[in-house]
Amino acid sequence: MQALGEIPATMQAVRLHGAGFDRISVDTVPVPRPGPRQLLARVDAAGVCSSILKLVAQGSEHTFINGWDMERYPVILGDEGCVTVVAVGDEVSGQYQLGRRYATQPAVDHPPVNHRERYRNQAADMHKVAVGYSLPGHLAEYMLVTEETLAAQCLVPLPTDEIPFFAGALCEPLSCVISAQDRHVHIHQDTPLAPRRPGLGLLRGGVSVVIGAGPMGRLHAEAALRFNPAHLVVTDVLEERLVWLRERLGEKARAAGVQLHAVPAAEVWGLVRKLSAGRGADDIIAAVGVRQVQMECQQHLAKGGVLNLFGGLKRGEHIIDLDTLRVHYDEIRLCGSSGGSPADVAEALRMVAAGEIDPGRHLDMVGSLDRFPEALALVRDAVVEGKIVLYPQAQSMPLLKTENWDRAAEAAFLAEHTL
C-alpha cells in the first residue's frame, strides 16, 4: 500500500444504526486501511442530500440496503462529496495517484463485491450499490473507496484543482439535473419530406417551465439556460424563492437571450398560455414531489411537449392518472430519471471549471461534520433554501450561513477552522 503522509488511527464518522432520526450518531471509528484493489480518500467536503431522509425513514428496507442489518453493521452516510486520495492498494497503484482529487458518482452500477452475506438472499438479485448506503459514505474524515466504485468508474477526477472542495461535492446534485434534462427528447423535422431526427434536452427557442424553486429547482433553472429557451418560467409558492431567482439568475438569463419569469404558482399557467400563444409549454420539469401537480402538468404541455417527473412521490401515492388521448393525439412525453452517471458528474465538473455554472450561488450553509443531525433536520423541515456542505476536516463549529461562497471563502474558512 502506498500512502500520502501519516494516516491517523481513528476518525469521526456519521453513522446510521437503523431506521429513525434517533439512530443517527457521530461516532469515533477506526480509519479503514484499503485492500489491494481499494483506495483510501480524505473527505474534503460532503453535501447533505435530501435523499438521506428516505434512507433514514426506511432503514434496512431501502433498496440499496436490501436487508443489511444496520444495528449490527452501521453504515456511514453521505452520497455527495469531494475527496483526495491518500492511500492506494497495491493492485491499483498504477491507476490512481496519491494527492489526486475526485468527485464521486454515488450510484454504482456494479453488484456487491464485499459482505454479500449481509444482504437479503446473499445479494443474489443486486446489480447496483451506492456510496453512503452499504458502501462507505462521505460524511466521515476518511472514506474507503471500494472495488465496486472503481470498477464502475464512479470516481471522477477533477479537471483542475482550481475547483473548490464544495463545488466538487455539489457536482453530484448538478449531475442529477444534467441527467434529467438530457431525458427530454424532441422530434425535429426540417421539411414535410425530411426525415425525423431526435434532439436531446429542452427545446431551444421554446417555453420551458420549472415547478418548484427549492435547492434542486434552482439548479434546474440555471442548467436550463444552456438550451436557450425563449422563455424560462419558474414558479413556487414562496415569494422569497422567486426573489432569489430574479436577483441571482436574472442577469445570466438576459445574457443568454432568455426571458426569465419567476411567478407565483397561481399565475404560472395563465402566463404560459400567453407566452406560447395558447400552445402550452414545450418542457415542464416538476421539481416537487406533489401528485396533483404531476397530473395537472400534463394538460399544460404543447403538442410534442415533455413532462419530467423529477420530484419523486411516496410509495403508495406514486400511481398517477395519465391522459392517453394527449399521448396519442398530441404526442406528449413523460420522462424521469434517478440520479446521474459518471459521465454526468464529468460534465458537471466541466461546466464548473468553465464557469458555465456557479455552485456558490446554490450553497446556503457550511459547517463541521458533527453538525450533520442539525443540518439534516433543516433539510427535512424545508427551512434551508440552498444546499448544505460540511467540511469533515474542520473543527467543531456552528452552521454558518453563506452567500456567494467561492474558492477564496472556502480557503479562508478552512484556514480558520482546520487544525
Characterise the protein shown here:
With 419 residues, this protein is α/β, with parallel strands linked by helices. The chain folds into 2 domains: 2-175 and 340-417, Medium-chain alcohol dehydrogenases, catalytic domain (Quinone Oxidoreductase, Chain A, domain 1, Alpha-Beta Complex); 184-335, NAD(P)-binding Rossmann-like Domain (Rossmann fold), CATH 3.40.50.720. It has 11 helices and 22 strands. It has helices spanning 51-58, 147-151, 165-182, 215-224, 239-255, 268-275, 291-297, 324-329, 342-353, 372-380, 407-417; strands at 2-3, 10-16, 24-30, 39-47, 75-76, 80-88, 101-104, 107-108, 129-130, 142-145, 155-157, 185-188, 197-200, 207-211, 231-236, 259-264, 281-286, 301-308, 333-335, 363-368, 387-391, 400-401. Strands 1, 4, 6, 7, 10, 11, 20, 21 and 22 form a 9-stranded mixed sheet that branches. Strands 16-15-14-17-18-19 form a 6-stranded parallel sheet, sandwiched between helices. The protein has a 3-stranded antiparallel sheet with strand order 3-2-5, with no helix packed on it. Helix 3 crosses helix 9. The longest helix has 18 residues, at 165-182. The mean pLDDT is 95.
